[in-house]
Each structure stands twice: as C-alpha cells, then as structure tokens.
Amino acid sequence: MPRADAPARTRRVRRNDPDRCSRIIDACIDVIAEIGFAGASYRTIADAADVPLGSMTYHFARMDELLHEAFTRFPTTRSERYEPRLAAGHDPAST
Predict the structure, then answer these.
(1) CA 27 from chain center: how many Å?
(2) 23-63: per-residue pLDDT in tens?
(3) pTM, whole model, 2 decimals?
(4) 3-state class of 47 per DSSP?
(5) How many CB atoms lie within 10 A of CB 70?
(6) For 48, which of 14, 18, 27, 86 could close a Cys bridge (C-beta 3.0–4.6 Å)?
C-alpha cells in the first residue's frame, strides 16, 4: 500500500507504432547502402529509423536476424519497383 505522502504513480503510455519493425528493416537497407555493411550498427540503424535503441533488440535479438530480414526484403522491394516499368515494355520481336 502506498504511503499517504508518496506521489501518485502514473502509468507509462506505450506508443502505438505498428510500423516500427518494418521501418527498422528499411532503415537497415538504407544505412548499408549509404555507409556500407561495416558501418551498420544498432545505433546507426536506430537513428536512421527514428526509433529508440531498445526497440532494436526488442524486434531483433541479434544483428544477423535484422540483416537476414533486410536482405530478404531488398530484392522484393526492388522487383516491385521495376515491375510496372517492365510490364509497360514491349517485345521487340512483335514489332
């Protein structure tokens, strides 16, 4: 039971950020593209994703987990980017 003279505790409000994990993965790709694999650390990626450093270990216990997700996502996002351009092209043999 709290003391009568003790300040009332307020509950910490959790920030609802459902895209945080995805932002971390995207930031990892961007950091590696900008400064290279050797420069990619939890701290640089957290800064790039604009997330607290603790979120990095919450979502990815080890750096290799994050790198696996980033390298898995990279080809998918790049192919989606070029798919409309490729679909708009025509076959030179049919002209």
Answers:
(1) 5
(2) 999 999 999 999 998 989 999 999 999 999 999 999 999 99
(3) 0.66
(4) helix
(5) 21
(6) 27
